[in-house]
Fold:
Amino acid sequence: MKLIEMRVEEFLKETASNSPAPGGGSVSALAGALAAALAGMVANLSQGEKFPETEKMAETAANAAELRAELEACVQKDTDGFERYMQAIRLPKATEEEKAFRRAQMQSALKAAAEIPLGTAVAAAKIFPLAEKVLQLGNANAASDALVSAMLARTAVYGALLNVKINLSGIRDEPFVQEMTSRAEALRREAREQEERVLSLSPLGKDFIVEK
Structure:
């Protein structure tokens, strides 16, 4: 069964078990999916005769649904990436040829394991404009939900980037490491700035801005 198809209770139990996956990467992707879902909820609550921005909210709801689907897929991808690395570790290493092949497969799997959460972070970062839009133009009664969307999006980005960093630590391809590190740092800064921007737009959110 795919992780995203589990009941909430089942997913929580599996995460809490002694199995190393699903771990922080999959949970970060789930946080991003929840952030997108909340932005979509506010957009869907902001349509109809009472709301002048119904058309924009309908478009925002559709964009949120696309991001949610992308991040739902990342929940499974992250765990699959970890399993690929574990399979590489289990390869035979009795001869020099086997050792070389095993090392190459481990490096390839580590690169994939870094690229997957980076993709999660990129997708999660796209939620901030949606959260901002529904906060400003959407149903005022759902303002707290829009703010939680932004906060969860930041958590999703940060959590995914932690998984990028830990996998980069074992990669020997320095140009790859440098490029991924640069992209990760840019995303980290963007997430912090975007979350702060959204929180600052509402009296509800201002008290939750983390001091620099």
Observations:
- Residues 22-206 form a domain with the Four Helix Bundle (Hemerythrin (Met), subunit A) fold (CATH 1.20.120.680).
